[in-house]
Write a structure and sequence with these properties.
The protein is of the alpha+beta class and 351 residues long. It has ten helices and eleven strands. The termini are far apart.
C-alpha cells in the first residue's frame, strides 16, 4: 500500500491545525529528498490527502508516482524512460538506504516487473498492443515504487535521530530528512494535547511525547556542494554483464547493468567506439552473464559513485580486443583525473 496513515493520540476529536499540516509538509519534503537522492529527481511524484478515517485524529496521505519526468521525449518510449529511473532501485546506494529504512530489499520489484513486461512485449501484435503493454507496465511499476517511497518516508519521519544520522547518504539528503522530521515534531510539541504519534501499518511503534524533543532538534545546514568536488577515478575492473543495452544511442536512457569484481551492481554506459563497431559488425555477441575486462571511469561525489563510464573494453569473454588508454588520452577525455597508474591492483587482468 502506498498510503501513509499518521495517527495523533489526542483526548478529543480535534487538534492544532499546525501539527496536522506539518505532517503533510514533512512527508512531502522526505519524498522530494528520496526522489533526489535515489532517483536523481527523475520521478514525477504527487502527495495527495485522502478522506479522513474514524478514531482519534488521523492524517491519511497517499503517495502517487505518475511516471518519469519528460516521458514522451525519449525515442524509446514511456517504458524505457521510466525504466531508467526504476532501475536505480537496484544500485547499491538505493538498496542500502531502503533496506536500512524499511527492512526490505527493493531490487526484486524492478526485476520481476521488467521480466514480465519483456516476456509479454515479445509476443505483442503490432505497435498499438506494444504501446498498451508499455502503459500497463508503467502503471504497475508506479504502484510498486509508490509503496517503497511511502514506507521509506514513514520510516524517516519516525526514526530516532541517530538512525538518520548513520544513513550512508549525501549530506544534503541527510539534512532534508532530519529537518523535515524536526518540522513535524516541533509542531507536535506545540500542541500539548498530542500524547503520541503512530505511523500505522508500517510496523513502527508509536512515538510517545517524551521522545518528541529528540526528533524536533533542527540540524545544521550543510555547506553547499560544489561542482568542483566531483572527482573522476579511472581503474581496470571486471564486469559481469547481466543486462546489456545493445542500442548505442539509447544507453544514456537505459544503462547497461552488471556486477563488478567486488560483486557490486553497476549501471554504466560504454563509450568505446571500436567496441560498438565490433558489435555492429557482429564480431562479438552477448550471452547470459558475459564477462568484460574494462577500463572504467567512475565519477565520485561526496565519496559515492554517481556515474560510471566504460572508456574501453579490453577483454571480451577472455579474448583481448584492446589496450588501455594512456594517461594523456584519459586527460583529454575526462580532464583532470586522480593520478592513474598501472599499479592499481588490477594489472593481473591484462595478463
Amino acid at each position: 500500500m502506498s498510503h501513509i496513515r499518521i495517527r495523533f493520540d489526542v483526548p478529543n476529536h480535534y487538534m492544532n491545525v499546525n501539527a496536522f499540516i506539518a505532517s503533510a509538509q514533512s512527508t512531502q519534503r522526505t519524498l522530494d529528498a528520496l526522489n533526489a537522492e535515489l532517483f536523481d529527481g527523475q520521478l514525477d511524484l504527487e502527495l495527495v490527502v485522502c478522506a479522513p478515517e474514524s478514531g482519534s485524529v488521523r492524517q491519511v496521505l497517499r503517495v502517487v508516482v505518475k511516471g518519469a519526468k519528460f516521458i514522451g521525449v525519449s525515442a524509446i518510449g514511456i517504458y524505457g524512460t521510466f525504466w531508467s529511473a526504476v532501475e536505480l532501485l537496484e544500485t547499491d546506494i538505493a538498496k542500502d538506504v531502503i533496506k536500512e529504512l524499511t527492512g526490505k530489499a527493493p531490487a526484486q520489484i524492478a526485476v520481476e516487473f521488467a521480466r514480465e513486461y519483456k516476456e509479454r512485449s515479445e509476443h505483442a501484435n503490432g505497435a498499438a498492443e506494444q504501446q498498451e503493454l508499455e502503459k500497463k507496465a508503467v502503471e504497475i511499476a508506479c504502484q510498486h515504487v509508490a509503496t517503497v517511497l511511502s514506507e521509506a518516508s514513514s520510516s524517516i519521519l519516525a526514526a530516532p535521530r541517530e538512525k538518520l544520522e548513520q544513513l550512508e547518504i549525501s549530506e544534503s539528503a541527510k539534512f532534508a530528512f532530519t529537518d523535515a522530521q524536526a518540522e513535524l515534531f516541533e509542531k507536535c510539541i506545540d500542541d500539548t494535547s498530542i500524547a503520541s504519534i503512530d505511523f500505522e501499518e508500517k510496523d513502527l511503534p508509536p512515538i510517545p511525547r517524551n521522545e518528541f524533543p529528540q526528533r524536533a532538534l533542527r540540524p545544521r545546514r550543510p555547506t553547499e556542494e560544489k561542482e568542483d568536488e566531483d572527482e573522476w577515478v579511472v581503474s581496470l575492473d571486471t564486469f559481469l554483464v547481466t543486462s546489456p543495452n545493445l542500442e548505442e544511442l539509447d544507453q544514456h536512457i537505459r544503462k547497461w547493468k552488471g556486477k563488478n569484481s567486488a560483486d557490486k551492481i553497476r549501471l554504466f554506459t560504454v563509450e568505446d567506439k571500436e567496441f560498438w563497431n565490433m558489435l555492429h559488425r557482429k564480431e562479438i555477441s552477448f550471452s547470459e552473464n558475459t564477462e568484460l575486462v574494462v577500463q572504467v571511469a567512475s565519477r565520485f561525489l561526496d565519496g559515492r559513485v554517481k556515474e560510471t563510464k566504460v572508456l574501453r573494453v579490453l577483454k571480451f569473454e577472455g579474448m583481448e580486443i584492446a589496450q588501455p588508454i594512456d594517461e594523456n588520452g584519459l586527460r583529454a577525455i575526462l580532464g583532470e583525473l586522480k593520478p592513474y597508474g598501472k599499479n592499481d591492483g588490477f594489472g593481473h587482468l591484462l595478463h
